[in-house]
Amino acid sequence: MKQSVEIAQAVADLSREGTPFVCVTLITSRGSVPQEVGAKLVVTRRGLFLGTVGGGKVEAAAITHALSLLDAPEVLPCSLIEWNLQKDIGMTCGGVVGFLFEVFHHHPWQIVVFGAGHVSQALCRVLSALDCVVTVHDDRPEYLALVPTSPNIQKRMSSPMENAVAGLPDGAFVVLMTQGHRTDKPILERCLLNRTFPYLAVIGSQSKAAVLRRELREAGVADSLVFRCPIGLPLGKDTPEEIAISIVAELLQVRGS
To answer: Do 238 and 222 belong to one domain?
Structure first.
């Protein structure tokens, strides 16, 4: 009874906050199983939030499946899955369990960062604490390795990076901070010519912005197509950490507008 009350309160709190989550309920069981029908757990993008459906391998499998639902581009709000604990999960129990997976608020805030340098690493450290999904693209594995590891951060080897633009999710906020003008420009051009994003920004100075706009005009990109450069709100010092905070402030400002 106590767990049911706690789960209900967690579902209400997460729904009110707008945090995406999956509620997993054990709805059927046959044979030897580690938990009773009605057991529940709640999974957010950070993993197990509350509850249990038996622990061990079966619970780990349920959490992994719930996380895959949160990351899927399209998913049904409710789905059923049945596992034979011995054949499907690798447990010694000979039972069978059926789970109901209910996905709530499956509209993650998608942020795509091109470049895995020092500012990108600082930016990802800040974003790792927010309710968003961050995808970092770079063609340098040694720099991608330095990007913080977090359940909501994905690292992608992309070469050339502009080829990744076609596969970006609709509605993504796109941040360009690669090695410089030479690698930023083809990504920006591909974004402006082929896609529309609610936020598209390039790290750099006013002079870099002027050069980019001139070269884009020469490449046939209309002046009416908008991107932000410099990036971030005008606050703080020019350290990676404070630049990152100014960028996140701008991201939040645009998201709330």
So the answer is: yes
Residues 227 and 119 in one domain: yes
Q: Which residues pair with 51 in a beta bridge?
A: 41
Would you give the DSSP letter of residue 199?
A: E
- The pLDDT tens digits of the residues spanning 167-186 come to 998 889 999 999 998 999 99
Residue 189: give its domain's CATH number.
Answer: 3.40.50.720
Q: How many CA atoms lie within 13 A of 216 on its CB side?
A: 24
Pair (96, 136) in one structural domain: no
Q: How far is residue 217 CA from its own chain's centroid? A: 33
Contacting residues for 130 by C-beta, under 8 A, at least 6 apart: 109, 152, 248
Please name which of 102, 89, 132, 88 lies closest in space to residue 41, comparing C-alpha atoms.
102
Beta-sheet pairing, 47-51 with 40-44 = antiparallel
What tens digit of pLDDT does each residue of 88-141 get? 998 887 789 999 999 987 677 899 999 999 999 999 999 999 988 899 999 999
Q: What is the pTM of this model?
A: 0.65
User: Could you tell me the residue range of the domain that residue 155 belongs to?
Assistant: 110-255
**Same domain flag for 145 and 33:** no
Residue 193 CB burial class (10 angstroms; 0-12, 13-18, ≥19): middle
136-166: b or e for each residue (b if 16 or more CB lie within 10 Å)?
A: bbbbeeebbeebbeeebbebbebeebbebbe
194 close to 165: Cβ distance less than 8 angstroms: yes
